[in-house]
Amino acid sequence: AKSSGRGRAERFDDRYAAEASARLRLDAELRHALANDELICVYHPEIDLAGGGLYALEALVRWQHPSRGLLSPDDFVPHAETVGLIGILFEQVLDQVLTAQDKWETEFGWRPTVAVNVSPRQLTDSRLVKVVLAALEAHDAPASALILEVTETALVDDSVMTGTLAELRRHGVAVAVDDFGTGYSSVSRLADRHWDALKIDRSFVSGITEDPAREGVVHAMIALAHALQLRAIAEGVEDEPTLAKLRELGCDAAQGYLYTRPVDAAEISKMIIRSPQ
Ligand code: C2E
Ligand code: CA
Ligand code: CA
Ligand code: CA
């Protein structure tokens, strides 16, 4: 019994060591990726449900890993947050977004609005405003074509965060509450006028055509958004009946695989050519 107990302890140590070395490798590789432009952006359209045109594009980061292929943000964004690399990641994403917008503007004569995800810890960091304003200035780009998406779980009572959001919006950058419904924000926090839109989480959107209770919840979320003078955007729309229902409920915009998977900037150009504004 004694020896089998020790065996278990050793196996545990081995696993711990394996995890630690995987983490170290990820860390080194991510630093290398940031220094060598291995991170790329794909874009996921949000469609305006009243007019049928493009409401905005959401930028989603991918890692073109030299040996493991295209990695999803879930594989490296949490690590970037933990080790303090999220600021650099954000700067690279923002620069790619502004470069893509410049290109679309020369191609089409108008600048599609792009939403960029920010991590909770960036909001309590006073550098965010400077970074955003410097990037806009470097590209001579209007703040009005930029949206920052902030997950609802990040909406804590923090004076730096409140100040950051207020200053960004004073400069014309829009802010959307992402994954709405998954956090615990109070109505008073939502009503404090730092927001432009609520993005209703996919977990609420999927299933609204089968479950009247879910439909009721999404209806109430849209009504809440409108009562607060915010746009309501539904994420994760995968089929026509769901889209029709959202339209009926007065939702402003929708995003999901029904329209397309996230695609690269060149693919967005082709889509804009096919359906001009
Ligand atoms: P999110 O902001 O909630 O982004 C939506 C995610 O849902 C994306 O996954 C998107 O591809 C996926 N999605 C959209 N429509 C559908 C649909 O109809 N069906 C299904 N099944 N999925 C759909 P992705 O690209 O893997 O992103 C995952 C998360 O990673 C994002 O969730 C966001 O929180 C984070 N993320 C992505 N890019 C960045 C970034 O540049 N910075 C930071 N901080 N986080 C990012
Ligand atoms: Ca998002
Ligand atoms: Ca989302
Ligand atoms: Ca979500």
UniProtKB/TrEMBL annotation:
Where would I find the EAL domain in this sequence?
23-276
Organism per entry: Paractinoplanes durhamensis
User: From the entire protein, which fragment is shown?
Assistant: 467 to 743 of 753
This chain belongs to the protein called: EAL domain-containing protein
This protein's superkingdom? Bacteria
Signal peptide start and end residues: none
